[in-house]
Amino acid sequence: MSRQAPTLEDVAREAGVSRATVSRVVNGVRNVDPAIQDLVRRAIERTGYAPNQAARQLVTRRTTTVALVVSGAGDATDPDVSDAEQNAFATRVFADPFFGRVVGGVVGHLRPRSMHPVLMFAETPETRQEVVAYLRQGGADGALVVSTHPDDPLPALLAGAGLPAVLFARPGRPVPLSHVDLDHREGGRLAAGHLLERGCRRVATVAGPLAVAASQERLAGFRDTLARHGHPCVPVSEGGFTVDSGMVAMTALLAEHPDLDGLFTGNDLMAQGAVQVLRDHGRRVPQDVAVVGFDDSSIAVTCRPRLTTVRQPVEEMAATMARLLDEHILGGRTDPTSVVFAPELVIRDSA
Amino acid sequence: MSRQAPTLEDVAREAGVSRATVSRVVNGVRNVDPAIQDLVRRAIERTGYAPNQAARQLVTRRTTTVALVVSGAGDATDPDVSDAEQNAFATRVFADPFFGRVVGGVVGHLRPRSMHPVLMFAETPETRQEVVAYLRQGGADGALVVSTHPDDPLPALLAGAGLPAVLFARPGRPVPLSHVDLDHREGGRLAAGHLLERGCRRVATVAGPLAVAASQERLAGFRDTLARHGHPCVPVSEGGFTVDSGMVAMTALLAEHPDLDGLFTGNDLMAQGAVQVLRDHGRRVPQDVAVVGFDDSSIAVTCRPRLTTVRQPVEEMAATMARLLDEHILGGRTDPTSVVFAPELVIRDSA
DNA sequence: GGCGCGTGGTAGAGCGCTCTCCGTCGCCGC
DNA sequence: GCGGCGACGGAGAGCGCTCTACCACGCGCC
């Protein structure tokens, strides 16, 4: 910007009215004579005026942004690791298409309201403090938090500071914040039901990290239905939601139960890993082993065979999360709510 | 926030000094008596003071954010499509691990400077205007732009408005903005060299969208080296940087050249698709057909066989992009610069 | 014809911070 | 012992906006 940006004052002078009148026109409110209205509008056009956000924020005490924070539970204070680590954390997080969907859903809600997400990553005590500080300083009106770990201390920090925040998934320890979630247990049931219906009799599962509530729920639902149909014991191997971990877990599972004919995995990434291992061991999917994933992420349709999976409506959930935050910020809603979504079985080629 | 947030004034009163002194301490500058310094610091502690960003921005004319915008070239003004479309755009964009790496690199530079990226998507004229407006209003100090299309009009818009911006990749039409880029041609050469060295004699390529300069360069480099070694003609099939498009392109290629023994793809995603098609047609990789991808994205190591690929140091490039923007904002650098990175061949199992 | 009232506009007080002066004080040199 | 200088702290003027008064009309009414 070469010359000084035009201010409300300049426009007012140009239009021959007062600052307040211009402000009214800009904010599209109340009784302003139509003739004056477009007199002003023309002046705005001519001067190329753009309202200064900082000034507006200062008086309205509202920004046009919310923080979208992905947080882990790290407590390493090692300053050496931190930078490269943090950097890698962001990269790693977005390696799962899941987060892209969250962003998509959030933006879907925010954009029509002319709001924008500020991306933040918090996996060390310092970065967590940064998030809190940022909000307290009025950098954003509230936070949308996606935790990658059940022991994430951030939600409690936020709640303690009285900052508006909404979580994706129920927090590990109860915290007075709204959140959206999926009925994971039902998802597990759906997977089990489908495998059983297909005629699988020796099923196993590569579960997500069991410390994560969602993983446990999925597993519980899976076991639940299986038990109900005469399969009290289910081999379980724990993975870490990544392709690699899925491979490791599958390898272990296969070593102990070479005859399995049905598999449920905690997410699609691990399903992909499992399928690879299965193939490497000469098993055909779905003929020899049927595989059901979880999430219905983009890779479910791009990998081969295309994954039968339990769909999680992530975009919709994320949009709802943004909506809840909005309601909190606008003051309409004061006490924590939770919205739980229903999973859906998507049948493709792997089972 | 229940009660009114404490202001500089409150802290000053608490500490028994003037507002200015507190400000100095907060901003950690100049000659303030150490005794007074921690008198103030204690008062800050006691009151729980957090500086108001809006007020600070108003006077310094600097925010603590930059816009990170992913932009397409859409010109559809159809209001119906727009919302869901835009939403999907975001999701789609992040389905490629590439963008996650960009985010990681950007955050890596920004965070140590206590700055944050505001995520924006622009693929319609309106959303592009929103980006420009946002910056003109002082919502962010500058923009980091990643275009998905060579005809993206955003860079020109930004440059025209005199807004600080740095691009990832050279723009389709010349625009007076700094950018970072890769020596794509050299990347293509690297791939060709490796395939040749392996003994491949009938090589083909699944190129990225040829409208994209990077794709053309990669192809040119690839052809270049091949021609130099007695292979003047190379079968080319054009893809769209997605797994699916890679499959389609590979299928076409295979139909016309069933005897090919070497393949270079425009990115790793397409390589993955190609490998699947190759396998479906009974070709072993790398024994029957050697495949070289591009990017070295996270999927290169998670798929099977692990991909031999041309590495693009995306994180580093993104960090540099952020650094250049910083320099422009701070005023140190006024004329457009470009920083070009060198690709690197990463040999794994697919070739 | 004066009163009240609704309409459409202006004036001006901040919002919380930074930063440029400017005043004060202690200390050194001649 | 006095002038001057450096180190430090305070006063106060904005930054550009919103929003609450408040005022000037013209109208219908009794």
Entry summary:
The structure is a homodimer of 351-residue chains. In chain A, 46% of the residues lie in helices and 16% in strands.
Protein model, in words:
Two copies of one chain form a homodimer. Chain A is α/β, with parallel strands linked by helices and 351 residues long. Chain A is 46% helix and 16% strand. Chain A has a six-stranded parallel β-sheet, with helices on both faces. In chain A, helix 13 links the parallel strand 9 and strand 10. The longest helix of chain A has 16 residues. Chain A starts with 7 loop residues before the first helix and ends in a 5-residue tail after the last strand. Chains A and B meet through helix 4, helix 5, helix 6, strand 2 and helix 7 of A and helix 4, helix 5, helix 6, strand 2 and helix 7 of B.
